[in-house]
Amino acid sequence: MHDPPSKPFNLKEHQEIADDLIRQAGFDDIENAKKFFEKECDFIAASADRLIFPKPTVLKEKFQREFIHTLGSTKLQLQVPDSASQAEDIIKSSQPVSYNYDTLSNEEEKDKAKFFIHWRLWRKFVAEKNGYLLFLPADTRIPNHTIWTHCAITSALQGCIVIEQQKDHQLKFEPSFLIFQIGPVQEFIAQARKTKDLWSGSYLLSWLIAHGIKAVSDQRGPDAIIYPTLFGQPLFDYLHKDFYEKIKTADGSSSLWTKEFAHLDQNKNLILTPNLPNRFLALVPYSEAANIAQRCEKAIKEELDKISQKCVEFLKEELHKISKKCVEFLKIDENIQNLWNLQIDSFIQISWVAHRWEMDVEKALTFFEQLPYLADQKDNQSSAQNPAKNLRTLYNVARNLPPDDLDPRNYIMDAQGKPTIKSSGFCWSAHYAITDWLHAGRRNTRDFSFYGSLNQLHQRRGIPKDMYSGKEECIGGEAWQNELHQRFPYLFKENERLGALNILKRIWDEAYLEKCHKLSHEGFDFDSVPDVAAYCWYRENEEKLKTNDKHKNFLKKVNEAKEKKQIASLYFQTEIKRRITEYETEKKSEATELKEALNNLIDLQKELQSEPVPYVAILAMDGDSMGKKLSGADAPKVSEHLSEKSKEYFSNHARDILGCSRPLFPSYHIELSQALANFSLYLAALIVEKFYGQLIYAGGDDILAMLPAEKALDCACLLRKAFRGDPSLANDVDNWFKGTGQTGFLILNNQCKEWENLGIKTDYPLILMGERADISAGIAIGHIHSPLQNLVEEARRAEKKAKTEPYNKGSFVVSLFKRSGEILQWGSKWELFSQSQGQSSYIALELFKSLNEYFNKKYISARFPYRLAELTQAYFPSFPHKDSLDGPEEVKKVIEKDFDFAIEQHFNNNASEGS
Q1: Model confidence, pTM
Q2: Rounded distance between C-alpha atoms, residue 634 and residue 384, angstroms
C-alpha cells in the first residue's frame, strides 16, 4: 500500500491517500508501520518496469485514461470515473477490512492473514464495481503496466530483505530468481486409452505444482511468485479453503469462503481444470532460496505420497469386496507394494536453480553479454535481435541524458565522476536470462538415481511392461490385473497391463480427490471417443428428435436393456451391434431389447437421411515462440509504449532509445501470465464446449481437446482468436463479449450467464496475448476406434510441424488417419495475404468450409479434395511465401483451370438447382 491504486488520478496527494488506506487496514501508527518498508524496493520495482526517465519535474504526463497493452501496442480506453474522488471512493470502499480474525492464534498470524486477504480480494472487489480500474497505469509517462503490478513487484522485492543479525535488526537485501520445474509432462500425459486418462495425467501435474507453489507463497507471500499468476487461480484458491473458512465476516454469520468463493463450490469443474504450467519463477532472498526450493520439493513429494497411499487403500478395499474369501492373488502383498512404491518414487523429476542478482549494473550487463548463446552471435547483429546488446544501448542512453534532467533516485557517480545507473532492477532481463540459462544447464545434466536396487533386479526380470509407457513393470500378475477389470469395468479394460502410475491415473480422482477433498466433476462425464463423435449429430438434430416417435422408442428400448453405456455413442449402429454381440451369451433379454433399439435407430436415421460421422479429432495447440516471449525477446519497441510527451522528450534528447526493444520487465512477466490464465480459465473450455467437444487441459498456451471431427478446425480458429484477444470473436459467439475494437482486450458481458457461473459480476476487461502473439494447431482425425494414444501423439506431431517449414508458425496442420492405414496431411497459415484484397484473411478455412458445405449438400463427391490435391501439388513450390497467395500469374491461371477440371469430374449433376 505504499502507492494507492488511484495514484494516476491524484499524483500530488497520493502519499496522504496511501496513509489513509494503511490506517483503514488497521495500522493506526503510520510511522511505525512504515519502519519495515524499505523505500529502495519501490525505486527498484520502478526502474525494473520503466525506463530510466528524467526527473518528474522535467517530464510529466497527465492521466490520459488509456492503457497500452503490455505485450503489444494496442490501447484500451479506460471507462473510469470522471473525478479522482469518485475513483478513490470506489477503491477505498472496496478495501477488504471488515473481517473477523479472532480464530487466528496470534498477531503475526492475523497480520499475515490481512496481507493475504488484501492481495486476493482488493482487486476482486474493485473489479466488481469497475473492472477498468484494474488497468490504472503506475506511470502515466509509460502507461503499459498497472499500479497493481507495480505494488506486487515492490512487495516481492520487500520479501527479499532478510534480517542478517537478529540482535541488531540489521537488514540485508539479496534478491534472487528461483526457477523450479517438474516433469515428465508430454510423455506422461500421452499415455492414455481413455479421455479421462488425458485429463488425469495433466491434472495430477497441475495439482502437484500447485502444492509446490503454495509452499513458496506460504513462506514468502503470493507476490513472490512472478510466473504463473496466482490471482484468481481457482486451484490456488481451493488450496486455501481451510484458511478462508477461518476468516469470518464482521458479524460472524459466515466464513470468507462461503461469502466470496461459493461459486467454486457450485462449479467444481473450475477447480478441476488443469491450467497451471509445470514450472514457476519466484523472487526470493538468496540466503533462503535453497531452503525454499527444498520445501517446495518436499511438499510435492509428500502430496504425491498421500495420493499414492490413498490409491493403495482404495484398491485394497475394493479388491476385498470382490473376494470375501481373500484369495491370495487379490491381495496387495509386500512385492506388489514395493514395486508400486518404487515406481511412484521414481516418477517426479525435479530441477531448480537459484541465481543471486548482481547488484552492480555494469557487472550484470557484462555477465549478460557473456552468455554463450549471445556472445557467439555476430557483432553486426541488431539490438532488436540481441537482448544483451539492446539493454546495453538503453544503459548508455540513460547515462547520457542531459545532466540537469537526471533523476537522483536512479543514479550514482562512478570513479570518473560520470553518472551510472544504481538500480539493479534495470537489469531484470539480464537476471532472468542468466537464471534461465543456468536452469537449462541443470536440466541438461540429466542426473538420475538407480531405478530400485541391484538386489531387486532379478525380481523384476521377465515381468511384462506397462502397455502404455513401455517402461514400468506391470503391477501384480495377470489374474490380479484381470480383477481390476472385473471390479472396475468402466476404468480398466480386459487384458490391460498397467504399472503403478497408469493405475493411479485411473483411480486417484475417486480414491483421493473425491474421498479426501469432495472434488468431483459435477454434471460432467468424461465421454468416450464414440460419445464425443456422436454428440454433435445429436445436438444438431435435437429439435427433430424431441418429437420423433422412432427416437422415443429407441431411447425406451435402450433403457429397458439397462444399458450403462452413455446414450450418445449408441447413435452409432456399429456400437449397438457391438453390445448385442457381447450380451448374446449371458444377457439375452438385454440383447433382445438392443436389437429392437437398433431397428428403431436404422429407421430413424433413414428418415432423417443422416447419421453421426464415425470420426473424432484430437486438437493440440501451442503458443508460438513462448520461450522468446517469456525471455522478453519478442517485446515491442520502446516507442510503442511511451506517452506522447515521453516520445517528444526522447526524440529531442535520446532518439536512439525509440528504436530499441523493450527489455523484459516484471509487469511483462505478470501480464503475460495473466493473459494466458485469462485464456485458459475463461475462454478455452467455453469455446470447446460450443463445438460439442471436451477440453482435456488448458495450460495457458497449451491446449488439448477432443472434438467431433467436423468441428475441430472451426474450434481451433476460435481458440486462436481468443488466445490473441481478436475483437472479431465477439461476432462469432452470442452475447459473450462487448467488443473493444483493439486486439489483446476482450470485455466480458456480465449479462451473459456463462460469466455468471465463473463469478463475474460486471463488464470485465480481460487482457489476452495481443496482436504480436500467435498459436499453432495440430489436428489428428481418426476413426472412433483408433487408439487414442496414437491420435494424441499424431496431433502433437502435427502441431510441431505447423511450427516448422513450410508453415513456420501461426499455422495449422491436419493429419487424417484413413481406415486403410494411410495418413493424409495438409495445412496452412491461419491467415493468408492477398495482394488483390490488400489484407490477410482466413482464406484456407473459408475454402474448407465451402467444400464441406457442398459435400454435405451432395454437390461434389468425396473424391474432389483428393483429386484437387493431386492436380495442384506440383505447383506449390511456385509460391515462395507460405503466408501469401501471391505467386506467378501464369501458375495461378493453371491452378484455376485444374480447379475447374476437378469440379467437372466430381460435380453431381443430379444435385438440386442453385448449386
Answers
A1: 0.90
A2: 9
Residue 61, C-beta contacts closer than 8 angstroms, at least 6 positions apart = 140, 141, 643, 644, 645, 646
Whole-angstrom distance, CA of residue 294 vs CA of residue 180: 10
CB 433 within 8 A of CB 631: yes
Q: Look up residue 62 and give its three cell numbers.
A: 497527465
End-to-end CA distance of the chain: 67
What is the CB-side half-sphere exposure of residue 276 using CA atoms within 13 A? 35
The angle, 0 to 180 degrees and rounded to 10, between the axes of the packed helices 843-856 and 864-872 is: 140
Q: Give the helix/strand (H/E) hosting 177.
A: strand 175-183
Query: pLDDT means per 10 residues in the chain (915 residues)?
Result: 93 92 88 84 93 91 96 94 95 94 90 95 94 96 96 96 72 94 88 86 96 97 96 95 94 92 88 92 97 98 97 86 54 85 93 97 95 70 76 93 92 88 94 96 83 72 86 86 82 89 94 94 71 92 94 91 75 91 83 93 94 95 91 89 96 92 93 94 91 89 93 95 92 81 87 74 85 96 91 95 91 90 88 64 82 83 83 69 62 85 81 50
Distance separating alpha carbons of residues 360 and 191, to the nearest angstrom: 48
Q: Which three cell numbers stand for residue 819?
A: 481406415
CA pair distance 810, 883, nearest whole angstrom: 9
Grid coordinates standing for 185? 509432462
The answer to whether residues 225 and 213 touch, using CB atoms and an 8 Å cutoff, is: yes
Cα-atom radius of gyration of the chain, to the nearest Å?
A: 30
- Residue 309: how many CB atoms within 10 A of its CB? 14
Using alpha carbons, select from 527, 598, 604 the residue that is nearest to residue 784: 527
Strand, helix or coil for residue 543: helix
* 868: CB partners within 8 A, 6+ apart: 898, 899, 902
Instruction: Report the distance separating Cα 748 and Cα 761, nearest Å.
Output: 10
State residue 82 phi and psi, 5-degree precision: -70, -35
DSSP for 730-741, written as a single string: HHHSSSSEE--S
Cell matching residue 648: 517528444
Q: Indicate the SS3 state at residue 472.
A: coil
**Angle ∠(437,641,152) on CA atoms, nearest 5:** 60
Query: What is the C-alpha to C-alpha distance for residues 119 and 12, in angstroms, rounded to an integer?
Result: 25
CA angle 778, 780, 783 (to 5 degrees): 170
In the three-class reduction of DSSP (H, G, I as helix; E, B as strand; rest coil), residue 218 is classed as helix
Which residues face 413 on adjacent strands? 419
Q: Tell me how far apart the alpha carbons of residues 264 and 270 are, in angstroms, rounded to a whole number.
A: 7
Count Cβ atoms below 10 Å from residue 52 Cβ, excluding itself.
23
Residue 176, C-alpha cell as written in the block: 534472487
